[in-house]
Amino acid sequence: MTTTNPSAVGHPEGSGTEHAGHVETRGIDLVPEEERGGRPRQLFAVWAAPNVSYLSFVVGGSLILMGLTLAQALAVILVGNLLWICTGVLAVSGPAAGTSGSVISRAMYGVLGNKAVLVLTGWLIAAAYLALNWSAASVAGIGLADRLGAPHGTAVSAAVICAVAAGTLLIAIFGYGLIVRLYSALSVLLTVVFTVVTGYVLHHADFSYAPAEPLHGGALAAALGAGFAIIASTPLSYSNSPDLARYLPRDSSPVAVAGWTAFGAYLPSTVFTAVGALAATRLDMSDPESALESILPGWFVPVFVIAVVVNTMTNNGMTAYSAGLAIQSVGVRLARIPAVLIIGVLGTAMTLWAILVFDFLTSVNTMLQLVVVVTGPAMAVAVTDLLMRRNRYRGEDLLAEQRGGPYWYHRGVHLPGVLALLLGGVTALMWANTSFWTGPAADALGGVDLAIPAGMAVAAAVYGATARALRTIPRA
Asked: How many CA atoms lie within 13 A of 398 on its CB side?
């Protein structure tokens, strides 16, 4: 990648392929120090825009539908979103290594072991999250099409889904420069729209709400566990935070990088999920789109729907961008743009299936509860590795892939990482409780879902102990 002013990343006077008006051609290759710029505080808007989210309303409303009181739901929201701290901590490896998170994870799993992990975490789960968010936007977009008099049917629904997907993939194709510039403006605009919605919700909310039959004992514990899993699943899915921080200077403050990333996501996610819970105290959030539109003035409904679609594009733009890098990291000989298009096609197909075949709300809750079986242990391994190495990653070595290199380990596999991910995943599965799977450990405890704390604790403990025993991580 070339640039006429390499230091201009994040500055309006710069030009080059990382500028908002140019398609980014850089893939997973190292970002040279002279091509880095900007400040960690830019990350606040980058992470705020995708989390000023309609899906937050949906998830917040689902907590009340589970039978929780308003106070219990708000407590789950506050605690579950604290997992954004992990996303922030992981982001500090971006400036240190100067390459994508899908390459940095070679330090945890080995050059060859990382390829297998990325197929699961970088492709399939990324595509599933694309489908989840596109589903949310498509449901709203299809409703707007009906309101505008478009013929109701599968063809129109499919057209809306494909249009939303196409707009998202454009963001991912233009890449980092567009994301940084565009999201700063969109975070403000989306906040304004969703704040207006919040005002109407607060006007109708019942702050003294209590379910007709309050939960007690094991039933309450099960609902709290499921709610925590749903809330925490979102921050745990963002292992791509180094991708958006890698263009920052190497000497950027780790505290600032972690803080702006975590706070940028935590604040809007917490606020608007809480608004969803408040909405459910008076509205039937089993159909969130219709429920929210029922309290909004008619002229504002199209504005709200457009904001939902735009928010989905910002969220999935980041996901598709990182998924394209993951495809390159696996070793598929594709430029970044074709890689983005492949993951986009897969996500679009899953969206069509979710919208046209399954109930939207059921799809959301089931996926968010089950996906943490993988994302929780993976996040625990990544954070543990970063702390053990004290964030000392060398991008040149990570990209080398040669036999005998520092990240080749034994036959290309880092046993501690693979073992920790497997054992953490099995543990999480045993403690998971979803609509179609209840693990034996969760069942023995009355259906309490402890997949996240159990899976993450086991993964971190196994990784730390095994890496120390095998001495695969050099002491700082």
From this structure: 27
Of 99, 79, 425, which is closest to residue 243 (Cα–Cα)? 99
Q: Which residues touch 92 (CB under 8 Å, ≥6 apart)? A: 245, 254, 257, 258, 386, 391
In CATH, what number does 29-470 get?
1.10.4160.10
CA pair distance 164, 395, nearest whole angstrom:
35
Between CA 356 and CA 420 the distance in angstroms is: 37
Provide the pLDDT confidence category of residue 186 given band limits of 50, 70 and 90.
confident
Bridge partners for 165 per DSSP: none
CA dist., res. 341 & res. 170, Å (int)? 10
396-414 pLDDT, tens per residue?
999 888 788 889 999 999 9
Amino acid at 18: E
Question: 14: Cβ–Cβ under 8 A, 6 or more apart, which residues?
Answer: 3, 4, 5, 7, 8, 37
Radius of gyration of the chain (CA): 22
Distance from C-alpha of 395 to C-alpha of 106, rounded to nearest angstrom: 11
Q: Which residue has the tokens 């799809």?
A: 363
